Amino acid sequence: MGIFMKTKQDNQSNSISPLTSETIAISHNSIPEFEASQRWVRVKFGGDTIADSTRVMVLRRDNRLPVYCFPKDDVRMDLMEQTQHNSEFAPQGIATYWNVGGGDKISENAAWCFLDPADGWQALKDYMIFEWGKMDAWFEEEEEVFVHLRDPYHRIDVLQSSRHLRIVFEDTTIAETHRPLLLFETGFPTRYYIPREDSRMDLLEPTGNQTRCPYKGIASSYWSIVVDDKVLENSVWSYPDPLPENHKIKDYLCFFNERVDAIYVNDELVPKPVTPWSS
Q1: 50 within domain boundaries
Q2: pTM for this structure?
Q3: Would you say 128 and 110 are in contact if contact means Cβ atoms under 8 Å apart?
Q4: What is the tally of structural domains in the chain?
Q5: Residue 181 sits in which domain range?
Q6: Starting from the edge strand earliest in sequence, which strands make up the sheet with 127-130, in order?
């Protein structure tokens, strides 16, 4: 996997990434902190391709999402303007920020680099890093990628099960099935995907909310659970058109483990996880 350069020496516990509330970052002692990627990566903003490289590096920092680092030779530096803003990132050093221009748009402090990296991190000096959400679009090869890069150390398995699953809210069974899909994802609690036919659709109210995942696609269908005068907002979601890698979950419903009153698997209560979506 790429060119090994630096490796984490200590195990790190799961933690919420400060870059986004939608992802939990996880580290292992065998995962390189700075390594080459074999992917062709492009960044677009304001109709312009800001960065275009087959020589990107991946930087991993404790408790943060991994980021792509672009050689400055592969970046439209003529569309960049250095600002007075900076921030310290241990142990790499002080990051200097840049505004990014594209078309008739400007995104402030949308890119950063280490002009004088700390000892042991000199290899970072000639690379630019972009704030993912401040750019218009990102592509790996010819596929658009959302939210953050697809980490090769992140895994998702979707398994058909015959276990008896029951979901309860306000003493009412919202869904019950013997044919759930169990989605196991690195750093996350098990997610239970249920056929619509086995769900109480009469207790679900569409909300129009949507979220994106770089591994599963766009969850463009959300519902609130409504039982009498109790409402659990945006607590159920579905992927009508998931990415091919996770096509099994198409049109299945998933309920937030953290929010419903109870989930029973084979009549055993599943412990409620604590995640960014618990509130």
Answers
A1: yes
A2: 0.80
A3: no
A4: 2
A5: 156-269
A6: 4-7, 32-36, 57-59, 67-71, 127-130, 105-113, 93-102, 80-89
